[in-house]
Structure formats: structure tokens, C-alpha cells
Amino acid sequence: MKKAPGNKTDPDMLKEYDFSNGIRGKYAARYAAGSNVVVLPPDLAQAFPTPEAVHNALHGLVSLAQETTAKKS
After folding, report:
1. Dmax of the chain from CA atoms?
2. What is the pLDDT of residues 17-73, one digit of tens each?
3. Alpha-carbon distance 53 to 51, whole Å?
4. How far apart are CA 71 and CA 73, in angstroms?
5. Which DSSP string corresponds to 28-61?
6. What is the SS3 assignment for 71?
């Protein structure tokens, strides 16, 4: 594994940390496939303070949109 350029004096990296056998990007594809990060503006973050609140609101919106579409057909 090639060493990434970095700050050799990073105070958060202790001498005890050993990444010599690490594999860069081992889980990157799995992480990218299973996540979708959306950053909310502060006003929306106040209205939807938890992931569950966002989830419920979006599901409600989808249900409403489907009902509206079905009534028009």
C-alpha cells in the first residue's frame, strides 16, 4: 500500500496507530452504494431534526403524490 501524503505532525494520530496492513478503499464501493447523504439547510434541519423525521415526511409526500396522480387518471 502506498502511503498517502499527509501531515506527519497530526496531533490526532498517535504512534500506537498502525495502518501498515491497511487496504485503501476496501469498503468504499459498498459505502457509496448504500448511502445517500443530503445536507439540509438550517431552517429545514430545525423542522426535521432526525433522520426518521425526514424519512416520514418524504414517505408522506410520496403517498400524497401517488394519491393525487391516481385521482387524475
Report:
1. 67
2. 888 899 999 998 888 888 778 899 999 999 999 989 999 999 999 999 999 888 887
3. 5
4. 6
5. HHHHHHT----PPPHHHHHH--SHHHHHHHHHHH
6. helix
The whole model's pTM is what? 0.49
Give the angle 48-51-55 at the CA atoms, nearest 5°: 85
Closest CA to 36 of 58, 66, 63, 65: 58
DSSP 8-state class, residue 19: -
The answer to whether 24 and 1 have CB atoms below 8 angstroms apart is: yes
- How far, in Å, CA of 42 to CA of 70, rounded? 34
Q: How many residues does the chain have?
A: 73
DSSP classification of residue 18: -
